[in-house]
Each structure stands twice: as C-alpha cells, then as structure tokens.
C-alpha cells in the first residue's frame, strides 16, 4: 500500500508538472495538488491541522503494527511453505489487552480534541459581528456593529461564464472570486452570524478553520481571529441547488486603519446610492436599471433571453399569468416568491426601486414589448404592496 | 414445517410487525413534539 | 441455479405429495424457494450496481476537467443523488439480502425461510422501486437533485422526481422490513436441533443483528420521507422554518436512520469475511464469542451517534462533545473484529484463492476507511472536512472496499455451492487485482482533495484540483470495466463451464452448507439435521 502511494504520488507529481504548468497556487485558496489541510491563519485552523497530524500519526503506527503482523502471516504462514494450522481460537488475556489499550488511545485522542471543540464554540466577546446570509446562489453580508455598522452588500461569484464554459483560459482564482469581498480587521475576533433566506447553505473558509451551516429561519454563529492580513477564500459547503458550486466566499483581512477607512467609504457609497422610492421614474431609466438588476439576480434561472428552463424555471417572455397581467401579481411574486418552488422572495434583497425597475424591464423586453397590462411599474407601487 | 412451527413463526412475525408500526408512529409523534 | 432434476432429499416420508416443480416464468414470479429468491436478489442487485455505476461514470466524466463540458449543473446533481440512492437501496442492501436468503437456511439447517410467500413479495417489490427510481429521470424536472440525503428545505423545492424517489424509498423500505422480519423469525425459530445461537456461523449472527437494526430504523426513514411528502403537498410544516418548522429536525430524523443504515450495510460483510478467513486459514475463527459481542456492541452504539453527521449545524458544545466521544468509541469493537481476523490468519495454513484475496483486501482497505472514520469523528477535524471529498473518500472506502469487496468475496466463496461449478480461478484473481488497484486509484486522491477544501456535490471546481480529479476519473472507468470481468466469471460458472464442484470444494470450510451437494438441490434439509 505504501509502495502504491509512492507510485501514485510520483505519478501525480509528473502529471502536475505536465498538465497544470499553467495553473498556479490560488492566493488564499488551495495550492496545486495540495495534500494536506492548510495550517491557515487562525489559532483554530492551526489546532485543527495539529489534531489531524496527531490522528494521522497514531493511525499510521497502528496500521503498521496490524498490517505488519498480517503481512508477516501472509508470507510465513502459507500452506505452500508447509505451514501447519494451529488450533487456538481464543486467548482472554490478548483479547482484553486489545480492547483496553485502544480504549486508552481513544481517550488520549479525545482530550486535545475537547479543548478545540470548546474553543471553536466560544463566540463571546467579539470585536466585530457580521451577519452572513446564504441565498440561492450568493452570499449577503451585513455589518451589525463597529465602524462599518449597517454596511450591507451582496457578494456574488465574479468568474465570467466564458471561463466556466472553457471559452477563455481560467484564472488562478477561478470559481473562488467575488465582486464584493467581505472585509475584516486583522487580529480581531470576528463573529459571523450565519443564516439563510431559502435552503441550507454553509459558510466555509479553510484558512480560518471555519464551517457553519446556514439554516433558514435560524441564526447560528461561528468566529475567527485572523492573525495575518491577506485574502482568504472558501466555498459553500452544503448542497443548495444547481449553482451550489458557484457561490464562493472571499474575505479580505486588513489592518484596523484600512478597515476603518474602508468602512467610511462604504457608508458614503451607500448613502449616495440610496434610491429614492417616492420619486417618479421614467420608463427609460427603469428599463436601464431593470436590465442591470435582471442580469445580476434573475438570469441564472429565467435566462438572459427570458425563456427560462421550463418546467422548473418558467419563461417570462410571453407569460400571461404574471408578466403580461396586471402588475399586482408580479409585484407580489418578486416580493414574496412562490413558496414550494425555486422562486425566492426578493423583498429583503432588492429595494423598491430595484424591484420596480426589474419588473418594468421584464414587461418590455424581448417579445413582451407592447403587450399586456401595466407596462411601467413605479417604485411607489412596490412600496404599497410591501 | 410443522403446524406448531408455523404457529410460532406467525406469532413472532406479528410481534415484529407491531414493533415496526409503533416506531413509525413514534417518529411522527416525537417529531411533531419537537417543533414549535 | 439450483438443480431442478431429481435431487430431492431422499423422500423417506412421502415427500412427493408436495406441489409439482413450477417451470418457466411461473417458477420465478411465484418463487417461494429461498435459493431461487436469493438468486433473483443477487441478479437484481448486480443490475442496480451497473445502473448506479453508470451514473457515477457520467458524473466523473463531467469532473475530468474544471468547467462545464457535458452536463448542466442540475442534471449533474441528479446523477450524484441517484447514484447514491440506487447504490444503497438497489445494489448493496438487496445484495446482502440475497446472500441471507441463499445461505441462512443452509447454514442453520432449515428447509427454507420462515415466511416463504412474504419472501416472494419482498423480492418483487424491488423492481417496482427500481422502476420508480429510473423513471424519475424522465418526469418533468428530472430526477431529484437533493443528494441521497434529501435534506429539507432543498428537497421541498424539487419537482415530481422527488415524489418518485420518496415512493421508491417507501417501497424498498417495506421490502427491507419484511425481509428483516423473515430473517429474524427464521434464525430464532428454525435452527436445527443442537444448533444453539452460539454455535451458529457468524454470518447468521451478523444478519440477526442487522435485521434488528433494519426493523428499528427503516420505519424512521419511512416517517422522514413521508414528512417530506406532506410538507411538499399536504400543507404540513415539519421542516419549513417560515411556518414554524425546523429544517434540522429532518436531519435528526434522517440520520437516526442513516447512521444505523451504514452498519446495516457493513455487518453482513463482517459475517461473510468471518466465514471466508477461517476457511482459507484452515483454522477456527479466533474469538467467536467476542465477535458476537463486538457486533452487538457496534449495533447498539450505532443508535447513539447519529449527530456526528451534523457537527456543522450549530449544536451546543455538550452535543458536539457527546457525539464525538460516542462515535470514537465505536472504533473499539470494530478494532477488536479486525484483530480477531488477523489472529485467525496467524499460524494458520493459508492459501489465497479469490475469496481469500477479497477477504484480505477487505480487511486492509476497510481498515483504512475505518481510520478516516475515526479521524472525522474528531469534531474539529470534521468541521474542516465535512461536506468535502474527504468524507466521500471515507465512505467509499468502507462501502466499496468494505461492503462490495465482501460481497465479491462471498460470491466467489459460495459460487460453487450455487452453480455446481468451480469458477475460473485465474480470471477471478484478475478481477480482484484489477478491482483492488483501480479502487485505490479512484478514491485515494479524494482524501487529498477533501483536506485541501474541495467540497462535495460540486459540478465544477478550482483548477488547482484538476490532477487528482483526473486520476479519480481514470480509476473510476478502470474500476467499472473490471466489473464486466466479474460478470463474465459468474456467467461462465452458471453456464456450466468449469470443473464440477464437490460438496465442500474448500479444504478448510466449515458449516452445514458444505454437507449438501453442489449445486445445492432445490430442497435441502427437508428433515433437519442434528447438530452436535
């Protein structure tokens, strides 16, 4: 078996040399042909790596012991060697020993593990608290305290579709890059409150030693204290539907000064981008805005051409039930979703301007132009139905 | 199989079937109780 | 196939008054003979192995390179889900029931199972379930893509394919429950005089204990998927948080079934290995009583550890610690069994025919899977590797290198009894080595992928993971092709091409099954033998 592993390892290295000459280690993510857990940048991740080495070494020693005996037996106790079978079939002393000794070994393994379990669960006295919400298929972050309080944004995969389809060469951060990274200060205890808006997701960052399921209707938490600045990458770790592989997590750890500056910037940007839902918008402005919202939120299921993927994802083009019908039905659909289907509720993710814009866009795009009732929906209409 | 054998088998089978149904029902009852 | 000609046990008390031997399709549709039913179970499970294996090859093809080449993500998730459901409920579990049907009556000196007609029904439910699974691909929306674990609320979003899967699980579960009742009553009530429980072959013990596990947990699974069904269609809110339910409740109920389920899939394998190793070591099984107690201990402990599948859900500290300790404890009785097998080999007189190769291969590779199981039992490590390829590697080591290797070993071991012919030993050995090596090529790299953070159930991955995925895909195809060899060996023996087999073709074999002719006559032990 060890020889086999050696052969495999050499083979893997040869192939690594040949096939992936272009791919380099991902900064903050997996190294090419990485063999082991990352030591990471937190005490917890380091503890986990240490525990794993301990377990691996103990198991290897037991492995060598047991299979040494078995291998010896296979060689020396062969009938073809003239071995004659003994008749013994029990020995109380030996049996007690090989029950008690493993029991003691297991206790020895459990002791350091206990320390780490307790440490991982202690989310008290955090310096920064951030709420992470899993959506199908992206993450939303909201800072609940500190200099960035009330900053909130969505964090979506930024790898272009062309790279996924193989039409363009893949970058070193392929599938683990986002438009808006989560920014946190170094050497501070960051508490992440994790939940979901739809199905179960999981927030995982290997370099922090963190993984926490995101469960709809419930708040769970986890924490980390990053000891080094840098960018660290993780992925969703609970099957959540078709784009489960396409909703990564990227955390940028910066100095406290950089964090404060970033926080101030974010708050500024939020204030100026604040949409005014009481004013009357022109159809052209709504369409332009709506197209952008559609591309960022609806394309995955309803497709860029509005034809959807029936029956699971219905077409919007030519849809008589909601899009080409009086506006209340479609406003209700976008605000509240259709429970029991894949259509999520967007009331907490999009503001009234964005919802009005995207609805107006769908009512006038593709072959829908000129058909159906209420071609323009104003933000005020959406507010009224909240 | 003797009739006596068959009788004993049938009794054992019925007892086990009752256990199965009880566990099925228990799961619903316990599951509902754990909610809210 | 058991011989249909005049091999009835000498009719010293007018046995010919029973029914005429049915012929043609009636023999199989109305079968009540444990050998015929066992054969049907084994054929069915092999076909399911091929179907489940094809799904695996499809998904491994997509995973050969990063990016999306062949399948949309949703279809890929359907393949992953159905691969798991079909392998577990269609291949592994029915295969072990097939072995139980064939061998338990022979090993305890009974003429047949306790409930021969229910046995027929148990079998014929299986193709119905299999058709539902297969047909689910062709309904609108395709098969369910929720993972074999069918977690809510994702499973509540799925289309009609999910309902097909739920009904299939109900039907296959009912079949398993009936089979388990049959096995318990047979073993408890129909042993030959003198065959005390502590004289039974270990295969019967492991099946007795497995059958109790089955009747305890299959109803729980039935309830869990029924709750999914009512949440989906009948307005209940067991798992819908917005309506007052709890998604994690599903996980508790499911894994309360799910953990004993994996022991259901391995205990009979332990029984098979415990038959083969003493036979080819020509030495009695070391520590028979300990083996029985260890099996019972594993079974009882298996009820107490389910939440180790839920370490990332946000359990309180006490929960994490308790489930970690309880899970680590299971390694003790499991270790005892492994030591006992090695001690059986020690100072034996060993030969290495194909059954023994698979049994030794099992011990070797299952132990590796056991080690990784112990490693993931350590909760902090599990937080790092939960839902990654490390777990995929772990469970394929114990389920494939474990259960499947034991099934192959048992098939080669008892094939002479079933067919009356010695299978082709040279080809059998080729099958073993090809399977053993390709298995490791496929699944060993997955440990690295998982440690490096590659999540499971992913259609696409970061380019840094490519090499190990390519090795795994190549290994998978090699592994799949190797099973064609097995099919050839078995068909060749059934076709009658091979040396005629003696009643006891293996020098060191023990047990009542070796006292009847090979192939075993249609009726055996019509009069129970007396066991000293």
From TrEMBL, chain B:
The chain crosses the membrane at residues 12-29. Keywords: Membrane, Transmembrane, Transmembrane helix. The keyword Transmembrane applies. This is Cytochrome c oxidase assembly factor 3 mitochondrial coiled-coil domain-containing protein. Coiled coil: none annotated. Residues 4-29 form the Cytochrome c oxidase assembly factor 3 mitochondrial coiled-coil domain. Pfam families: Coa3_cc.
